[in-house]
Amino acid sequence: MSKEITNRSEDYSQWYTDIVKKAGLADHSAVRGCMVIKPHGFGIWEMMKDQLDSMFKETGHVNAYFPLFIPKSFLSREAEHVEGFAKECAVVTHHRLMNAPNGGGVVVDPDSKLEEELIVRPTSETIIWNTYKDWINSYRDLPLLINQWANVVRWEMRTRLFLRTAEFLWQEGHTAHATKQEAIDETLLILNLYAKFAEEYMVMPVIKGVKTANERFAGAVDTYTIEALMQDSRALQAGTSHFLGQNFAKAFNVMFLDENQKQEYVWATSWGVSTRLMGGLIMTHSDDDGLIIPPRLAPTQVVIVPIPKPDPAIDEVAEKVMKALNEKGISVKYDTDRKKRPGFKFAEYEMRGIPVRLGIGRRDIENGQVEVARRDTKEKSSQPIEGIADHIQNLLEEIQNNLFQKALKFRDERITSVDNFDDFKEVLDTKGGFISAHWDGTTETEVKIKELTKATIRCIPIDNKLEDGKCILTGKPSNQRVLFARAY
Amino acid sequence: MSKEITNRSEDYSQWYTDIVKKAGLADHSAVRGCMVIKPHGFGIWEMMKDQLDSMFKETGHVNAYFPLFIPKSFLSREAEHVEGFAKECAVVTHHRLMNAPNGGGVVVDPDSKLEEELIVRPTSETIIWNTYKDWINSYRDLPLLINQWANVVRWEMRTRLFLRTAEFLWQEGHTAHATKQEAIDETLLILNLYAKFAEEYMVMPVIKGVKTANERFAGAVDTYTIEALMQDSRALQAGTSHFLGQNFAKAFNVMFLDENQKQEYVWATSWGVSTRLMGGLIMTHSDDDGLIIPPRLAPTQVVIVPIPKPDPAIDEVAEKVMKALNEKGISVKYDTDRKKRPGFKFAEYEMRGIPVRLGIGRRDIENGQVEVARRDTKEKSSQPIEGIADHIQNLLEEIQNNLFQKALKFRDERITSVDNFDDFKEVLDTKGGFISAHWDGTTETEVKIKELTKATIRCIPIDNKLEDGKCILTGKPSNQRVLFARAY
């Protein structure tokens, strides 16, 4: 089974695609750039979604739903936004098909042309702020803390499953506030929430920072980001939280009467994470035998395989173990399929990344034991059936911690400080990872470095320490290092 | 507050719209026919979704996600399907916008025309069966029991919030089976699941039945339905479950190797319920003062209002009551807003349909009591604080039962048997509701009756008893009664 996956060292990109397809996560569809998320992949996404959703709700946010379509003219309202989002998108121009006059299928009915074209949302700031205009009158209506789970479409020329697809699933938060400070606080609250989710659930270490002007969301005053490092030493932008200032309020004329009876423009934030996180999860932990799912996000945490197949004695032990695990809130599946051999099942669950596998055979039962195999290290051990639930509960926590420590070590070893452009290029080409270097603060230099090396400024870390230095490209003075990397 | 809602007796349609808007459920958007689902409405939809989702999962189904877009040619593959769904739909023809040559916004880039137009899914049988072709090879791959939660678009000329909108949210199950009987069993399993959900959670009584050929889903062999009755005595189709035979397997060439090594076409079902259920929920229970939410679907089951405003003594009692309610799994909100008066809050929660309201004032506390008001009957009573959680738990169950019994009585009083066309028309115009009558079994007669009366055959009830009779229109022989109604 593991033979089916290309080794990372041979072809990293093919390894990734193999895992996505063979672990049953996603597949290409008949529609260019659109993917099918398969049940196992969707199950992991549901775990992520449920956890994020409860974190949003705990911090006072509520869900709502806004239209899939955006009138074309809305995109032009905010000057920078249109530059960023009105380019590659799906445009609905007609609303009817008719039978082809000469038979042979259906054609677009030319009489059904829309007066104004509709864009399939690439992001929803415009339609939402157009709605908020009706919802906000006074300071009593603020803050509005709304999130939506939705599909969005950005027409991409080069797509990769989960990482870059024309249609993807995401959540987008859109909040409205009475003061600038409150909006900034919200932006950072969400940044920290995303970082906590990434590190405690996905066990994917991230660096929190702010984007440069050049990498900002189109229409934002400031874009905050969490940046992770993949196993090929490339960075992945995993989530962004934007302070939008009053840009969208002005574009859609959303004002409120403040406590002093004065009309003011509303302050805004928006923030999102998407199915791209699935790509991050895969590339942070998986190995040449398949997917590795962190226990806290595994739809099935434990699988029990009867050896060689189910029988009444094994069933009885399995039922008992399942009951004990369920009582601790551990999800478990007993594989009673008689058509497949244990070896085949082992390889399949390894491929699919199930954190813990229990093997139960007749002899194990006679010895009062079961075989416990953990997915992350592949270690196997025999454990007494008595107290097995406690053992597995601890083991799941240990796996969760082990995965994080391993990823953290990998990431930390790949943050390199350099002080000149030759070293910069060499580190990029050999070691990769994040490079901490001085930059003169201009978009011109940033763009030039990208042209020369394909490296971008991932972020200016949140709690960056100030130090005097010289820009690696221009030699101009700089007062802090920023993080560069080649990125997805 | 209740003054803002039009009375049902004055203008039923306006009453419905008033509730949807003023209870904070949904609103029209800037995009023709598309609605915005507001936080309170979405909260109720989330409760419905979570409950249905767990019922699907308990019966072995898993979730997945398929593309938003369907290549135009796919719709033509199944002959009847194209007639039903390829007419009014959103057609994507281009994938890029560009700055208008003369300034002033963006225009569609003519160079970005797609080779083949894409249709925004009106339903996903075609794209899913095109995918299943790759997933199904042998009987070992069956059954496939997959559901998806998604948005779909059907271009509607006349729209009504929740009941008929261009874009709506729904779930669509698509299952694949090795045998005809297994597919039929699945169709009925889901029909019963829908009926259970409607009656036990929405407390909306439904009649289970099968549709006539004329009312069948385009591409189905048999369409099963649950039909409810609204307060204006019109019927609402609340959910459908289709036995698709081998129609889609043949259209997309999906075959499997059976246990005898023979290639066979796969058997299929599909089934769905949508945000239309929100319309059913509203029109089954609500009154002239606003929405009434059945307790099992209320995102907030109990609200506590301090009288006249929060203070330390009231806060202490409220905290204690909340803790006791939470321990029983009852959701509760303590309204600490100091800007609004109690009377305003009472009216607002009544409008929004919160099942139980507790009022706590200083004097109540001195008497060791709180005031309990139930939304359904508007009854108020003083109850001892001691044991209040038990009282409310029982009260919520009582409300749930009371709503069902009331709706059941209303519905049962409006099922009328008639034996001739004059009576049929008179009952339709006076009493409305379901009319049980003989029909000669032809589409011709069914269509004629619809033309003459706007009544349609809602269904042939599942456990219909056979009896000889004569068609109310043609007098031709009939062996069973069917249910007619004017419907949404």
Q: Which whole number gives the mean pLDDT of chain A?
A: 96
Termini gap of chain A? 29 Å
Please name the CATH architecture of the largest domain in chain A. Answer: 2-Layer Sandwich
Specify the number of helices of chain A.
Answer: 14
Percent helix range of chain A: 25-40%
Instruction: Examine the coordinates and then state which fold CATH places here, giving the name of the CATH topology of the largest domain in chain A.
Output: BirA Bifunctional Protein, domain 2
Main sheet summary of chain A: 12 strands, mixed
Assembly state of the chains shown: homodimer
Q: Would you count the extended β strands of chain A for me?
A: 25
How many domains of chain A, as an integer?
A: 3
Q: Strand percentage of chain A, roughly?
A: 25-35%
CATH evolutionary superfamily of the largest domain in chain A: Bira Bifunctional Protein, Domain 2
Structural class category of chain A: alpha+beta
The best one-word shape of chain A is globular
